[in-house]
Design brief:
single chain, 351 residues, 39% helix
Length: 351
């Protein structure tokens, strides 16, 4: 403790406050995680806790590093795993940036008070419907809820008008989902926000009676394709991604979009935020601005993730249904509650 105090005193006498902070963080006059280069641009290193698809984030990282020279270290995990780790680490977290597939994990970290404000330049790139009202983090991509169904077993006139219909007795044993995944829990979070606790509890009870559980969205879709079950509630990109490859796991499958502001038309926002604990906030903010900027969003538009581009006026991949045509309900991502959903799904016997 004495050594640290003396070192800080020496720095205060010998350098500016900015240089003092840099030296304190690394013990070197030229730290690897310096906050900015001499010309004011981002430099050094950042660590990203990544719960997005690793291949997508790597495309963003490679393009960002090529443009800025900033080195990015990725630590991979799922939404809940990463958010819980950040909360446990608190102010001592080595993470500079947190990226997720879904919003509830972002709201969890925000509610713990661990995000710094997002730079205005980044906020301005993202339409209001794709970021939380608080602006403590921002949307970076999106995915739509969809019911994929076996076209040999179900005709269009037999499809449910609403996601809520899947809890009705006539759907017993006919549909699948992956309840343990963050994707499905985000859908339930949206249902809770849109319809309230009583309606959500009732739907979960009906789901327990009617559905077949699979581990993972792709596995659920494969089950539909193989004729094991008539339909599955998943995200859209599993279907489009398989179609872009061999189509072997989706050749008998058709996607159905609920639309009409139905809970089943929920568009889940993938999030990105800068941690207050960041040792290189300048580079962390620059990374977030890059992936929501034109070049970052074109990775979504032109790549193979088949997630929706949502920022900088970059249109979605041409193979996707235009996002405006999804007729999604309005949901504030900051209000999605993963803890409450987990409790309700556990009570219903789904977890």
């Amino acid at each position: 403790m004495k050594i640290r105090t003396n070192a800080l005193a020496g720095i205060a006498l010998a350098a500016t406050a900015a240089l003092g902070l840099a030296a304190c963080g690394s013990g070197s006059s030229t730290p690897a995680a310096s906050t900015a280069a001499a010309d004011g641009k981002a430099s050094g290193e950042i660590t990203v806790y990544n719960a997005q698809h690793e291949s997508l984030t790597k495309e963003w990282v490679d393009a960002f590093t090529a443009e800025t020279g900033v080195k990015v270290t990725l630590r991979q995990g799922d939404d809940t795993e990463m958010s819980n780790q950040i909360i446990q680490e608190g102010a001592a977290s080595p993470a500079d940036v947190f990226l997720t597939e879904n919003s509830p994990a972002m709201a969890q970290v925000e509610n713990a008070g661990l995000f710094a404000d997002v730079d205005k330049g980044t906020v301005d790139q993202v339409p209001a419907e794709f970021r939380p009202s608080t602006n403590k983090w921002t949307g970076i991509a999106a995915r739509s809820t969809v019911l994929v169904y076996d076209k040999a077993k179900l005709s269009e006139d037999k499809l449910p008008k609403s996601m809520l219909d899947l809890a009705k007795p006539e759907w017993k044993g006919k549909w699948a989902a992956s309840p343990s995944g963050a994707d499905f829990q985000a859908i339930v979070s949206a249902l809770l926000e849109l319809k309230g606790e009583a309606a959500t509890d009732e739907w979960l009870k009906g789901m327990k009676e009617n559905f077949k559980a699979y581990k993972g969205n792709s596995t659920a879709m494969k089950a539909v394709n193989a004729g094991e079950v008539d339909a599955a509630l998943i995200y859209h990109y599993y279907y489009y991604g398989d179609q872009a490859k061999t189509g072997e796991n989706s050749k008998n499958v058709t996607p159905y979009f609920f639309k009409n502001q139905d809970p089943g038309a929920f568009v889940s926002v993938s999030g990105g935020g800068v941690l207050k604990s960041s040792k290189n906030a300048a580079a962390a903010q620059a990374f977030l601005k890059f992936i929501t900027g034109k070049k970052g969003q074109e990775v979504l538009q032109k790549g193979t993730s088949f997630e929706y581009a949502i920022a900088s006026e970059v249109p979605a991949n041409e193979k996707l249904v235009p996002i405006k045509d999804l007729q999604a309900p309005t949901v504030d991502p900051a209000k999605l509650n993963s803890q409450k959903v987990s409790e309700m799904m556990t009570k219903a016997g789904l977890l």
